[in-house]
Structures are given as C-alpha cells and as structure tokens.
Amino acid sequence: GRKPVDLRGAAAVQGDLGASDADEVVPVLLRLARSDGPLSPEAEEIAALLSRWDGNLALDSSGAAAYSVLNRKLFSAFFRSAMGDSLFRRYVALPDVRPRSLVKGVLLAADRQRSATGWADRSRVVQALRESLRQTWVTLVHRLGPSREDWTWGGLHELEFAPFPGIAPAPGSAGGLAPFGIGGDASTLASSTSAERGFGVTSASSYRLAVDLAAPDRLLSSLAPGQSEHWRHPHFSDGMRRWREARPNLLLTSRLHVEEQSQAPLLLEPAP
C-alpha cells in the first residue's frame, strides 16, 4: 500500500524535523524520573511538557526546546563528574561524538537492567535525571524568560550566516542577515549542529537537492541564503523564504529552458 516517492516527496523528506529516538526515549525517562516519588514542581512541569510533545524538533516547539536542553544536562550529569572537566571537554571535542546517543544508551540500560551497574546504576541515573529536569526548567526561564509561549527551540537554536570574506557589510549598515531560529539538530534529516557551549547553530544543510532520474532536466533545489554571496546583490537572500519553509524551487538544467527563463546575464570583468 505504499505510494512511490515522487520528486516533491523526496524534497519534503529533506526537511523532516522528527527526532527518531523520541518515541523510545521520552517514555523511559519519564518512567525513571517518577519512579522515586513526586518530582519538584519545576521538574514536573518539564516532564509534563515532554509527555505532550509530538517528537518534532520544530522551531516553534516548546517540547523540542525542553528535550534538547535536557539531553545536554543529562550528558554532563552522566559523564562530566566521572571524567573530570579537562577530559570531558577533550572527549566532546572529538569528531563523531554523539552525546544524545550516549544518553539514550544509559537511560535504556538503567530502565531494563534495574540494577546497580556502572554508568547505568539505576539510583545514580534517576537522581541525575530528576535534577536535570529541574535544571532544564531553570535554563529555559533564564534563557527564554518566564513566559511559556517564549519557550521555543528556535529561541535557542539560532543560525547566523557568516559573511563572505572581503565583501561583508559595513558595521551598522542594513546589509546582512540577522540571526534567526531554525528547527532540527544533528539527528534530523534537516540537519543542523549546535555549539558545545550554548545552542547556536554551527553548521546546517543550507543546500538541498532532489532529482528524478527519469527526468534529470528538472530538479528541485533550495540554497540559503541566496544565489549571490554579495550582500548588495538582488539575489543575496532570495532563497531564504523557501529554504526555511522546506519548499525548494524548480531548477531547470536544459539549455532551452534556461535560456527561456533567464532574466539578465551577470558579466564579471577584471578591473582595468
């Protein structure tokens, strides 16, 4: 009963923001956290928020913000004290370290084994989890304010494009792009990674392409911020809206189509 994937379906997949482990991890962490009696009011508010979360790391999602902050707190709680600050920082800086996968492994092991063994010592994990839920509440209030409407993943996970060397807008000018929130993280198909300290975006999949090999002269493509790197160029940021909406543009590659759709040539010549 599965439908074949068409070109637009393939493009839509690249904008997916679902956290693949949320369905498995959230019930486990809630069960563990509540296994040792009532939570503090702050921790219970975060737990209730996660219990209503749909598992998507959308930029306007409060559950996504809570889940992302909690994972950061748990990773530190599980490993920093045992490793020491210096070794912990060196370990996090290594390539291909996936903190959320490690947190998931500890939580699942503690839930299944129900015994005191190493990293998955149940009492240790439960204590760290309860405190991390409380600290998550503190972080959200401190970073995003007391209004729960402001608790969004995009409020923490902000992207700012670095200017192209040599053609950056002058300080105080109207050029350039202000930082803005985006969804996703390193585990979603619409990929974006965060800094070790804070939640600002350090890299993101700014170019996306979908191709139907049966009709290779018609592609769907999105490029952020736009076609030009120069902030004064009219096409500097023309790709932003559709990239953020995960709605790529039609990209024609056949010579006839390109000539029909072209607006004006851009000729670059060396200065005399």
Quick structural gist:
By secondary structure, this protein is mainly alpha-helical.
Task: Give the key terms.
two-stranded antiparallel ribbon, mainly alpha, three-stranded antiparallel β-sheet, 10% strand, 272 residues
Helix content: 40-55%
Shape: elongated
Largest sheet: 3 strands, antiparallel
Spatial arrangement of strands, main beta sheet: 5-6-7
The helix/strand series, from N terminus to C terminus, equals: HHHHHHHHEEEEEEHEH
Average pLDDT rating: 87
Number of helices: 10
- Strand percentage lies at 5-15%
- Briefly note the structural class of the backbone: mainly alpha
Strand segment count: 7
State the low-pLDDT regions, or none.
Answer: none
Radius of gyration: 23 Å
Please tell me about this protein's structure.
The protein has 272 residues and is mainly α. The protein has 10 helices and 7 strands. It has a 3-stranded antiparallel beta sheet with strand order 5-6-7. Helix 4 packs across helix 5. The model has no long low-confidence stretch (mean pLDDT 87).
Write the layout of secondary structure elements.
Elements: H1 7-13, H2 22-33, H3 41-51, H4 62-83, H5 85-92, H6 99-113, H7 122-144, H8 153-156, E1 158-159, E2 180-181, E3 192-194, E4 201-204, E5 207-211, E6 218-223, H9 240-244, E7 249-252, H10 255-261
Antiparallel strand pairs: 1-2, 3-4, 5-6, 6-7
Helix pairs in contact: 2-6, 3-7, 4-5, 4-6, 4-7
